[in-house]
Amino acid sequence: MGGGGQQTEPAEPGSGKASGVYTWEEVQKHCSRKDQWLVVNRKVYNITQWAKRHPGGSRIISHYAGEDATEAFSAFHPDLKFVQKFLKPLLVGELAVTEPSQDEGKNAAIIKDFESLRAQVEKEGLFKAKPLFFCLHLGHILLLEALAWLMVTYWGTSWTMTLLCALMLTISQSQAGWLQHDFGHLSVFKKSRWNHLVHKFVIGHLKGASANWWNHRHFQHHAKPNIMKKDPDVNMLAVFVLGKTQPVEYGIKKIKHMPYNHQHKYFFLVGPPLLIPIYFHMQIMNTMITRRDWVDLAWSLSYYFRYFYCYSPLYGFLGSFALMMFVRFLESHWFVWVTQMNHIPMEIEYEKNQDWLTMQLQATCNIEQSLFNDWFSGHLNFQIEHHLFPMMPRHNYHLVVPRVRAMCEKHGVPYEIKSLWRGMADVVSSLKTSGELWLDAYLHK
After folding, report:
1. Could you give the CA distance from residue 327 to residue 168 in angstroms, rounded to a whole number?
2. With 0-12 CB in 10 A as exposed, 13-18 as middle and 19+ as buried, what is 260?
């Protein structure tokens, strides 16, 4: 790409003075770790130093280095005028008038239509939350937590009562996971600081995890879903190979950390059972300590203090620890199947620099709507709508579905919806397919 446009020396970062007019070819040169520019609404910004101070983490903003970040900028920031104050000192210029507003690979017609759709649903109030919905959701979580403890306190710690207690705690923990997701996406309160505060309470005090760890990890997934080297959710640490490209690459390079042709079998042993109780737990604790995130660590420790204070008199320390790990073992199965059935069977590739709608639709699919599916998945059965509008309250997803489907049909973008059981089965079948691709490349290429 390129074209006309006068190029001058860029302003020093922090000066806030736009002194340059640039082509996309020039902008795209600034995509290294130590030299990062991006474009928002045709304005060119040098984010090299600012990335380290970005509230959402340095990685998510760095993923857009050398690109147009306008759609992502609108998707993640509830108060665009406020955020502009931080961008202003980073301004180094603007795109030349001869340059298109979007970089190569992005569909201008889709971008324009999606921008209109977003403005329309915002005007209709679909980004406004219903406080009663979230109060009731929090209420049923707290009720389950209280009933689980009262049950074993007054009726004893027999195997039957303990299993019922574990089941109730699993439900409350899983539902708290969906609720923290709402606050983490700033989709409940108008003021971001209230979302952040309640997010720390739910994920920290109710679940023992870290809000900052979640934010920095999860928003990368939303910014670049299923894009290798950018989405941490498809970084399987060489335990699994995903999609169609990675298995062939591993096979050609004769990489065999695991017998990947059997990954659809050992997935049941190392995926759902271990993600939350082992991998996430270790990663969360390591992140809080190494980053000296003492606030999140305090919130997390408040959960453990409360839990052991309640259950140690009943089960002893080791018994309480075993109960907690069993609950996390059960919750992990719930979490993995719900979150992975929307993504693992979809396209997993390297960066293709696509517009927001196309990128999100290729990486996500929906699960059929029902009262059970909505509750069971925390409304993440509307994964497409959630990815397109990450700040939209989940109770409004179903209202925008018809318009999203119509837009996809207009532009020839596949909109995939499955049954709950088909979604789960597709996780296993896609792992099997990827494993077979690896084996073929490993043996014959």
Report:
1. 9
2. buried
Mention every residue, 6+ apart, whose C-beta is less than 8 A from residue 124: none
* Per-residue CA distances from 374 to 88, 140, 214, 342, 397 (Å): 41, 15, 22, 14, 10
- pTM for the model stands at 0.92
pLDDT score at 6: 46
Taking Cα atoms as reference points, which of 345, 324, 315, 231 lies closest to residue 277? 324
Q: Are 110 and 353 in contact (CB under 8 A)?
A: no
Give the phi and the psi of residue 35 in degrees, each rounded to 5: -155, 100
- The owner of tokens 């699994």 is 240
Q: Any alpha helices (H) in 224-293, and if so which ranges?
A: 245-252, 263-270, 281-290
- Give the DSSP H or E segment for 209: none
- pLDDT given at position 17: 53
Can you tell me whether residue 394 is helix, strand or coil? helix
pLDDT score for 3: 41
Find out whether 325 and 168 touch, Cβ atoms under 8 Å: no
Summarised one tens digit per residue, pLDDT across range 55-73 is 888 999 999 999 999 999 9
Q: Rounded to the nearest 5°, which phi and psi values hold at 287?
A: -65, -45
CB neighbourhood size of 176 (10 A) = 24
Task: Write down the residue that tokens 């902008």 correspond to.
Answer: 27
Selection from 72, 78, 10 nearest residue 44 by Cα = 10
Beta strands in 353-401 (DSSP E): 366-367
Radius of gyration of the chain from Cα atoms? 23
Q: Are 13 and 49 in contact (CB under 8 A)?
A: yes
Q: Which residues, other chains included, contact 26 with Cβ-Cβ below 8 Å and sequence gap of 6+? A: 7
Cβ within 8 Å of residue 193, ≥6 positions away: none
Type and span of the H or E element at 308: helix 294-340
Helix axes 192-200, 294-340, angle to 10 degrees: 90
Token readout for 72 is 């992502």
In angstroms, the CA 301 to CA 294 distance is 10
Kind plus residue range of the DSSP H or E element containing 202: none
Which of the residues in the chain have pLDDT under 70?
1-19
Judging by DSSP bridges, how do beta strands 91-95 and 43-46 pair with one another? antiparallel
Query: In whole angstroms, what is the distance from residue 366 CA to residue 383 CA?
Result: 5
What pLDDT, on the 0 to 100 scale, is given for residue 10?
52
Contact 300, 287 (CB under 8 A): no
Neighbours of 255 (CB within 10 A): 17
Question: Bridge-partner residues for 227, per DSSP?
Answer: 349
For residue 164, what are its two tokens?
């019922």
